[in-house]
Design brief:
The complex is a heterodimer of chains A (333) and B (576).
Chain A: H1 3-28, H2 71-107, E1 113-115, H3 116-134, H4 139-155, H5 160-163, E2 165-167, H6 170-183, H7 186-196, H8 201-212, H9 214-227, H10 231-238, H11 243-255, H12 257-279, H13 291-296, H14 306-327
Antiparallel strand pairs in A: 1-2
Chain B: H1 2-21, E1 29-34, H2 49-58, E2 63-65, E3 72-74, E4 82-85, E5 89-95, H3 110-121, H4 128-134, E6 137-143, E7 146-155, H5 161-164, H6 173-176, H7 187-191, H8 195-198, H9 201-212, E8 228-234, E9 238-243, E10 265-270, H10 274-282, E11 288-289, H11 294-301, E12 309-324, H12 334-341, H13 346-354, E13 359-360, H14 384-393, E14 397-398, E15 404-407, E16 413-415, E17 418-423, H15 427-443, E18 447-452, H16 454-463, E19 468-474, H17 483-486, H18 502-513, H19 517-534, E20 537-550, E21 553-554, E22 571-572
Parallel strand pairs in B: 1-10, 17-18, 17-19
Antiparallel strand pairs in B: 2-3, 4-5, 5-7, 6-7, 8-9, 9-10, 11-20, 12-19, 12-20, 13-20, 14-15, 15-16, 21-22
Helix pairs in contact in B: 12-14, 18-19
Classes of the chains: A mainly alpha (333), B alpha+beta (576).
């Protein structure tokens, strides 16, 4: 085995070991024999450096923050929060991006033809959803719109007028949404969305997911546009397979390599975003431990280097490890 | 020729370099750090102490108060008013200063004072808080021969009436009611707060005009007779007050101390973050930093930068309080409130947040007031056992899983789980909340923290959308009127806890009206006992005021009364 390959594999091993360590800490956080809970304040030991506590007290091995909270407990529970937010958000945003990107890339603007009735039903359902989301809601409106949607869906196969096929501009719609979301800096968008919602892990997860799907969507769209013209896809079509079947069984497995490679990078970016939001005091409830929130306390105690160094090292290590995993491929000897 | 040229160039270079490297140009501008925006500059409903500080620059009051002794001093009044007492009334007679003028040149008259009192009682205006404070003034008697001379007719008798009768900004009738429509109503009639008056077309038209002016955000639409005008207001960032070129008090000789207005410009910079504020002070971007956290105060006093700064500490009348929403089903009974009060580790908090320097208290009266302070009451202890016993006494039962449940009259059970609201970004509140949460968790009571933006928090407190709050409360060592914060009549306005029983209301009213000092002290002591028993709000400790200012600032007159300095008397390097 040549040296660069060996180095790459070593790095990969190191990255995997580090991530396993962080994952293990996060999973076992609640069962670890920690002397303090993350939210517990110790007023007698405020902003204490690591390894300084008197023997009479349980040790604050890694020091305390300016509120007297144990850093060890907060780092471990902060790891749990980082993973709890970033992994589901990455999964959900990748899933959403995969779905919308596939629509756009595989069918384009002209290939997806939908009956006029279903167009109307979708419009009515979307209007109902919008009214509900915007708060202009009433039972009468709900009943009317639901009834209309149902009637149209049932009537479409029977009425010739409603069966008339019209092209669905999937690509244009998805790419417009992508352009719209990407025209606003992501941090600004997330900040605005997180600020108007009540702070909770679930809400933060939703905000991150709905702002992060554009990357995977663009990747999968580009790959599908390439793959759909390959001869084996043409062959599958000629064999009489349905569009969905061709997409799911033949096109996506080949086109999703880019998304799979970018997935660890998505997690890394989302951990960074969650840390930034917590640093700014937005998104997560005040009692939830977070690396970003821990780092933010250094403003109250500028000389407390450990408040930046300890969560900073964990964050740096995790992000580097994720990047390492994304940037290299497993190499067999 | 060459020599002359080179000498000239050298001279120019020296002058240029000297200009570049000299300290910042001395000016009569004072720059002060504020932790939050004043939010609402309507003189009827200032939302916080910063709004009150702003209104003191824009408007003048009849009387001022000496920060140290508390003795009243004439401000817009020519002299201390005379007092006459009858069986049930107090008559306070004022004469306004002859030179006092509005910006349009018209003299300030007794009708302006009467107009102000009517506005403070007019139905339909956001005047609930001021109405509760000044409803003892029931009429204004004019002097037909002298429009500067008038008598305030006050209901009842109380020594505080003298100071309180002149403690509101006088508003210009010409600006708000040029047609003088309110003159047709007496103050007594408006005070009835009758619904028929609210529908009166004259009143309705006046209220519409007043509200349309949007004074909370456009104070410039109400020109006061104070020395300053609001020049700029970038909400959440900065407020700039400019001194009027010719202010009526400049003609007085000698200028009374309370009518001094030295700085030509006062700039308030809204910097919520403590670290950023300290950096601004170090860089010389602000001149005064009031209410500095203890840790930063002492750290800065030991640093290199201390040579360019002056440091002041005073015992204040501002206290940190834990308040309960007594309307909330979980917190309606006093035993639960008292149990939860035992979860605050006051000595620990004083040590952690104030470097051990703060004054504990049993109630709302400062321990400095030795006569009125009820030292026979015990200081609140941090005692989980006492809290457990009190919770059990209140009907709460601890379950096997550690939670507390109580069976209600309806047969349903309610779990004991609480939220604590406080202003976001303030380390002191965060510390108190975190400690309370820690203690409550030990007891098995889940507590959620709700750091909230200042103006949102005020709205939630007013509407009763909270369970517990942590905030500071401004005390006044010279006036004992607890009606705005604890009387049932103030619920929905400034009585955030929603507390008020017939007994407590009666006691609060008796304290406000009592004029015999010995009897008043007895009542005040009784009030402290009642407050500790009922615990609608728990005073934790009095904060020391710590103020840091640039060495270029003089005559700050630091004191224990908010904001901790007298901005109008400040002398800057250039003005000196």
């Amino acid at each position: 085995m040549n040296t660069p390959l060996r180095t790459t594999n070593r790095r990969r091993l190191l990255a995997s070991a580090w991530l396993s360590f962080v994952l293990l800490l996060a999973l076992l956080a609640a069962w670890l024999p920690l002397p303090y809970a993350p939210a517990t304040t110790d007023l007698a030991h405020v902003a204490e450096p690591p390894l300084q506590t008197a023997a009479a007290y349980p040790h604050h091995w890694l020091g305390t923050d300016p509120f007297g909270r144990d850093l060890l407990a907060n780092l471990i529970f902060g790891a749990r929060t980082a993973l709890l937010v970033s992994v589901p958000a990455a999964l959900f945003s990748t899933g959403l991006g995969l779905m919308l990107g596939s629509f756009a890339g595989f069918w384009g603007d002209t290939n997806l033809r939908v009956a006029l009735g279903y167009w109307l039903a979708s419009g009515s359902a979307l209007l109902a959803a919008f009214l509900s989301f915007a708060g202009f809601w009433s039972t009468t409106a709900f009943l009317l719109l639901s009834g209309f949607t149902l009637v149209i869906v049932l009537a479409t196969p029977r009425l010739r007028l409603l069966r008339h096929l019209a092209a669905f501009p999937a690509d244009r719609l998805v790419m417009s949404a992508v352009a719209l979301l990407e025209s606003i800096p992501r941090l600004v968008l997330v900040l605005v969305m997180a600020a108007v919602q009540e702070a909770s892990v679930f809400n933060l997860l939703l905000v991150l997911s709905f702002t992060y799907w554009t990357g995977p969507a663009r990747l999968i769209r580009a790959d599908l546009q390439r793959v759909k013209h390959l001869p084996y896809i043409e062959a599958a079509r000629a064999a009489g397979l349905s569009d969905f079947s061709v997409l799911l069984r033949h096109a996506l497995p080949n086109a999703s390599r880019g998304v799979r490679t970018a997935f660890p990078l998505s997690i890394a970016a989302l951990i960074g975003l969650e840390t930034t939001l917590s640093f700014l005091g937005i998104g997560l409830p005040a009692e939830t431990a977070s690396w970003g929130r821990l780092m933010a306390t250094v403003r109250l105690e500028p000389a407390a280097w450990w408040l930046i160094a300890e969560p900073g090292l964990l964050l740096l290590g995790t992000m580097l490890a994720l990047r390492q995993l994304a940037g290299t491929r497993p190499t067999t000897v | 020729m060459t020599r002359i040229l080179s000498a000239g160039l050298t001279l120019l270079a020296i002058v240029g370099l000297t200009t570049c490297s000299s300290p910042r140009t001395p000016s009569a501008t004072v720059r002060i750090r504020w932790a939050q925006d004043p939010g609402n500059l309507d003189p009827l409903a200032p939302s916080n102490p910063y709004a009150t500080e702003s209104l003191n620059l824009l408007h003048t009051y009849l009387l001022a108060s000496d920060n140290i002794t508390g003795t009243p001093a004439p401000w817009l009044a020519e002299a201390i008013p005379t007092i006459q007492r009858t069986d049930s009334l107090t008559l306070i007679t004022y004469r306004l200063r002859k030179k006092a003028r509005w910006d349009n040149g018209e003299p300030v008259s007794a009708h302006d004072v009467a107009f102000t009192l009517k506005v403070m009682n007019c139905p339909g205006l956001p005047n609930e808080a001021v109405r509760a404070r000044f409803d003892f003034i029931e009429d204004v008697l004019f002097d037909k021969n002298d429009n500067r001379h008038f008598t305030l007719v006050c209901r009842g008798r109380a020594p505080e009436f003298l100071k309180a009768s002149g403690d509101y900004p006088i508003l210009p009738e010409y600006a708000l009611d040029p047609q003088r429509t309110l003159r047709s109503f007496s103050l007594r009639t408006l005070q009835k707060n009758d619904n028929t008056f609210a529908a009166n077309p004259v009143i309705t038209a006046f209220v519409r005009r007043y509200l349309a002016a949007d004074l909370p955000h456009h104070p410039e639409r109400l020109p006061g007779c104070g020395p300053y005008q609001l020049q700029k207001w970038h909400s959440g960032q900065q407020l700039t007050f400019k001194r009027k070129r010719s202010w009526w008090a400049d003609q007085l000789r000698p200028v009374p101390a309370h009518l001094l207005a030295r700085p030509t410009t006062i700039e308030y910079q809204v910097i919520p973050d403590v670290g950023t504020s300290l950096l601004a002070l170090r860089r010389g971007e602000i001149d005064i930093y009031p209410l500095v956290p203890a840790k930063d105060f002492y750290r800065l006093s030991r640093s290199e930068a201390a040579r360019r700064l002056q440091f002041h500490t005073f015992d204040s009348y501002e206290m940190v309080t834990l308040g309960f929403n007594t309307r909330h089903p979980l917190l309606q009974d006093k035993l639960t409130r008292r149990a939860l009060s035992h979860l605050v580790d006051i000595p620990g908090l004083i040590k952690a947040t104030q470097q051990g320097v703060a004054q504990r208290t049993v109630g709302l009266i400062s321990p400095h007031n030795r006569a009125a302070y009820n030292d026979s009451l015990p200081l609140l202890s941090y005692d989980l056992t006492a809290a457990t016993l009190l919770l059990q006494k209140a009907g709460w039962l601890r379950q096997a899983d550690g939670r507390w449940l109580r069976r209600m009259v309806s047969g349903q059970t309610q779990p004991l789980s609480l939220t604590v609201s406080y202003r976001a970004g303030d380390p002191l509140y965060e510390q108190v909340a975190a400690q309370f949460q820690t203690a409550a968790t030990l007891l098995g009571v889940p507590v959620r923290l709700r750091p909230t933006e200042a103006s949102v928090l005020t709205g939630k407190l007013k509407s009763g959308e909270f369970e517990l709050y942590i905030r500071t409360l401004m005390g006044n060592p010279f006036i004992f009127n607890f009606a705005p914060i604890l009387h049932s009549a103030s619920v929905g306005t400034s009585n955030y806890t929603g507390f008020g029983t017939p007994t407590s209301d009666k006691l609060i009213e008796a304290i406000a009206l009592e004029e015999n000092p010995k009897r008043k002290i007895r009542l005040l002591r009784k009030f402290q006992i009642l407050l500790q028993q009922e615990s609608p709000l728990v005073p934790l400790f009095f904060l020391p005021y710590r103020l840091i200012a640039s060495n270029q600032i003089a005559n700050l007159q630091p004191s224990g009364l908010n904001p901790g300095y007298e901005v109008k008397t400040i002398i800057t390097q250039s003005a000196n």
